[in-house]
Automatic annotation (TrEMBL):
<comment type="function">
    <text>Catalyzes the attachment of tryptophan to tRNA(Trp).</text>
</comment>
<comment type="subunit">
    <text>Homodimer.</text>
</comment>
<dbReference type="InterPro" id="IPR014729">
    <property type="entry name" value="Rossmann-like_a/b/a_fold"/>
</dbReference>
<comment type="similarity">
    <text>Belongs to the class-I aminoacyl-tRNA synthetase family.</text>
</comment>
<dbReference type="Pfam" id="PF00579">
    <property type="entry name" value="tRNA-synt_1b"/>
</dbReference>
<keyword id="KW-0030">Aminoacyl-tRNA synthetase</keyword>
<dbReference type="InterPro" id="IPR024109">
    <property type="entry name" value="Trp-tRNA-ligase_bac-type"/>
</dbReference>
<feature type="binding site">
    <location>
        <position position="204"/>
    </location>
    <ligand>
        <name>ATP</name>
    </ligand>
</feature>
<dbReference type="GO" id="GO:0004830">
    <property type="term" value="F:tryptophan-tRNA ligase activity"/>
</dbReference>
<feature type="binding site">
    <location>
        <position position="133"/>
    </location>
    <ligand>
        <name>L-tryptophan</name>
    </ligand>
</feature>
<keyword id="KW-0067">ATP-binding</keyword>
<dbReference type="InterPro" id="IPR002306">
    <property type="entry name" value="Trp-tRNA-ligase"/>
</dbReference>
<dbReference type="InterPro" id="IPR002305">
    <property type="entry name" value="aa-tRNA-synth_Ic"/>
</dbReference>
<keyword id="KW-0436">Ligase</keyword>
<dbReference type="InterPro" id="IPR050203">
    <property type="entry name" value="Trp-tRNA_synthetase"/>
</dbReference>
<feature type="binding site">
    <location>
        <begin position="145"/>
        <end position="147"/>
    </location>
    <ligand>
        <name>ATP</name>
    </ligand>
</feature>
<keyword id="KW-0547">Nucleotide-binding</keyword>
Length: 351
């Protein structure tokens, strides 16, 4: 049964990359499939968060979901820590995942930096918790940006190993469906989740450096467009964005080796709901002095209203909390059923 899950960390500075790579795609998917959208606060604390900031940022992400058009009545919107089954299932997955798998995760290497000994143990096992987020709902589809591809592969590896290790028991309890795993057929309890990494903005780059992804934690605010930036700020950041000095090419192939130009064209395409080629059909041959103001206008037109709506929603924090509480209750109904079954599969006495 198809089901979508995705999460965003309440770590501040929600930016255009998060919006185009994730949140906007959530809004598109909600018309097609049942969805759960989660503010992943347990993930956020893998690095230090001031408690009061964490509370505020959690409400901000929820407000961004709602302001972008996610329907919290039809779908499930909640914060992760309200559903203890995430952490409980993550423990089981910590015992399924291998150290070698986790050691290969590039996000851990990037975020831990040089002093790995000083990174939290939570940061290291982050991917097990992410697998638990998804598989607690046996979600089949996960819309994310390109940077999460490796974690999604690990989620599949965890699901496959669990299905394999417990295949006989899953069959005995009548809880699985036959699944092909390479040569063999096993009784799968967890689906092998598909990442949905699609569209022209799966990896939005920094406005200051075409080799770095746009990121919440970049110390330079000029590197990103925040969802809460006003029109004047958006225009200024785009004006100051790094580019080369050539005109735009008329074919996509001409963007090769021009990371900054490629990024701005990709952003335009995503905002306009088209492709890079369509943007170049219109702007091929134009200098950045023409393209940048057009991009700024489009960005303001598309994200300006979201900031306004976020402010309106944030004026009622109790209302946001009520939405998250209700979403958490609905999520828990599904997740607790999964955990009950996982416990019987694994042999953890629960009744
Ligand atoms: N630059 C990006 N382009 C496209 N998609 C992106 N995402 C993040 N950055 C880009 C996607 O946004 C969703 C939520 O991300 P997250 O908050 O869970 O985690 P993150 O990747 O850690 O976000 P940042 O901004 O990059 O934070 P820092 O600076 O802490 O590393 C995910 O689907 C992600 O793929």
């Amino acid at each position: 049964e198809p089901r979508v899950f995705s999460g965003v960390q309440p770590t501040g500075n929600l930016h255009l990359g998060n919006y185009l790579g994730a949140i906007r795609r959530f809004v598109e998917l909600q018309d097609k499939l049942p969805c759960l959208f989660c503010v992943v606060d347990l993930h956020a604390i893998t690095v230090w968060q001031e408690p009061a900031d964490l509370e505020r940022q959690t409400r901000e992400i929820a407000a961004a979901f709602l302001a972008s058009g996610i329907d919290a009545e039809k779908h499930i919107v909640f914060n992760q820590s309200r559903v203890p089954e995430h952490a409980e299932l993550a423990w089981v997955f910590n015992c399924v995942a291998r150290m070698g798998w986790l050691n290969r995760m590039t996000q851990f290497k990037d975020k831990a930096g040089k002093d790995r000994e000083a990174a939290s143990a939570g940061l290291f096992v982050y991917p097990s918790l992410m697998a638990a987020d998804i598989l607690a709902y046996r979600a089949t589809h996960v819309p994310v940006g390109e940077d999460q591809k490796q974690h999604l592969e690990l989620t599949r590896d965890i699901a496959a190993k669990f299905n394999n290790d417990y295949s006989a028991r899953i069959a005995e309890l009548g809880l699985g469906v036959p699944m092909r795993m390479g040569e063999e057929s096993v009784n799968g309890y967890f689906p092998l989740t598909e990442p949905l990494i699609e569209g022209p903005a799966t990896r939005v780059m920094s406005l200051k450096d075409g080799a770095k992804k746009m990121s919440k934690s970049d110390p330079s605010d000029l590197s990103r467009i925040n969802l809460t930036d006003d029109a004047e700020t958006i225009a200024r950041k785009i004006r100051k964005a790094k580019t080369d000095s050539d005109a735009l090419p008329s074919e996509v192939a001409g963007l090769a080796g021009r990371a900054e130009a490629d990024n701005l064209v990709g952003i335009y395409a995503a905002l306009a709901g088209g492709t890079r080629q369509k943007v170049l059909d219109e702007f091929g041959g134009a200098p950045f002095s023409t393209f940048k103001p057009a991009l700024a206008d489009l960005a303001v037109e598309k994200i300006g209203p979201i900031a306004g709506e976020m402010r309106r929603i944030l004026a009622d924090p109790a209302g946001i909390d009520a939405t998250l509480r209700k979403g958490g209750e609905r999520a828990r109904e599904i997740a607790s059923r999964t955990l009950g079954e996982v416990k019987s599969i694994v042999g953890l006495l629960a009744n």
